[in-house]
């Protein structure tokens, strides 16, 4: 997929991407390629693949999402948070990423593209202690399996807010294993949407928070990993 194909594919899904936004995505793509030579940012490094497997994959799941504040947990090189901040400027985007080197890259992207985003160099479980129930939307891609991810992400979400988990083909199993975590953290799975990306079906899960999360969560990471909720 190239820039023009990306724009048409987004349009078919009801997402209009302006030429200015395409320029910003292209600038981000070049920074990603440049920095990827000096540090490990992404295994997906070819231009065509970046347009499809990173940009298209990250933009489409938010086509119908509403809200003002969005937090991307474990953003890495900026996915999905940076494409979302570019294409949906109505969201005030916060990126949470514990690796300092990756945050330096994210700061560079922010400066060069002139993005109004916040970058927090922290683990989600620490960030959540100071930012409970602060976000309308929380999202995450490729950070942890769903049971663990829910404990990291749901405390950040306000009641009635949406948690959007970008998952692969194993999503159904992950949901089955996360029933206790969903109950404990007061969320329901309200929707599942499939996005076709480079001959694969990516499953995106949409959760709604029904009640506040107990202050017990998130626990420290050692406990979350050793004893995931309900596992
Ligand atoms: C495989 S990368 C995925 C990055 C990006 N979300 C993507 O889809 O390309 C996983 C990222 O999650 C971050 N991470 C791992 N544990 C985390 C935690 N407890 N809180 C926040 N981020 C975490 C890692 O530092 C890493 O950058």
From TrEMBL:
Protein's name according to its UniProt entry: Ribosomal RNA small subunit methyltransferase G
Keyword hit for Oxidoreductase: no
Record key words, sorted: Cytoplasm, Methyltransferase, rRNA processing, S-adenosyl-L-methionine, Transferase
Entry EC number(s): 2.1.1.-
Example GO biological process: methylation
Residues annotated for S-adenosyl-L-methionine binding in this entry: 74, 79, 124-125, 141
HAMAP family assigned: 16SrRNA_methyltr_G (MF_00074)
Known role: Specifically methylates the N7 position of a guanine in 16S rRNA.
PANTHER family in the record: S-ADENOSYL-L-METHIONINE-DEPENDENT METHYLTRANSFERASES SUPERFAMILY PROTEIN (PTHR31760)
Keyword S-adenosyl-L-methionine on entry: yes
Compartment list: Cytoplasm
MF GO annotations: methyltransferase activity
Family membership noted in the UniProt record: Belongs to the methyltransferase superfamily. RNA methyltransferase RsmG family.
CDD domains: AdoMet_MTases (cd02440)
Pfam families: GidB
Major place of residence: cytoplasm
């Amino acid at each position: 997929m190239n820039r023009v194909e990306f724009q048409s594919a987004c349009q078919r899904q009801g997402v209009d991407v302006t030429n200015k936004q395409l320029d910003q995505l292209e600038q981000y793509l070049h920074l990603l390629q440049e920095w990827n030579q000096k540090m490990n940012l992404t295994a997906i490094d070819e231009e065509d693949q970046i347009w499809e497997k990173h940009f298209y994959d990250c933009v489409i799941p938010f086509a119908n999402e509403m809200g003002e504040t969005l937090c991307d947990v474990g953003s890495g090189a900026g996915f999905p948070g940076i494409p979302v901040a570019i294409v949906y400027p109505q969201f005030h985007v916060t990126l949470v990423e514990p690796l300092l080197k990756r945050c330096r890259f994210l700061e560079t992207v922010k400066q060069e593209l002139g993005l109004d985003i916040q970058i927090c160099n922290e683990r989600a479980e620490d960030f959540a202690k100071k930012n409970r129930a602060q976000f309308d939307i929380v999202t995450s891609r490729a950070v942890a399996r769903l049971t663990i991810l829910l404990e990291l992400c749901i405390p950040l979400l306000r009641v009635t807010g949406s948690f959007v988990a970008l998952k692969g083909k194993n999503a159904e199993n992950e949901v089955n294993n996360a029933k206790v975590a969903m109950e404990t953290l007061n969320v329901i799975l309200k929707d599942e949407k499939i996005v076709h990306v480079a001959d694969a079906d990516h499953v995106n899960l949409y959760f709604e928070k029904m009640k506040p999360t107990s202050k017990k969560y998130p626990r420290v990471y050692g406990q979350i990993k050793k004893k995931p909720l309900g596992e």
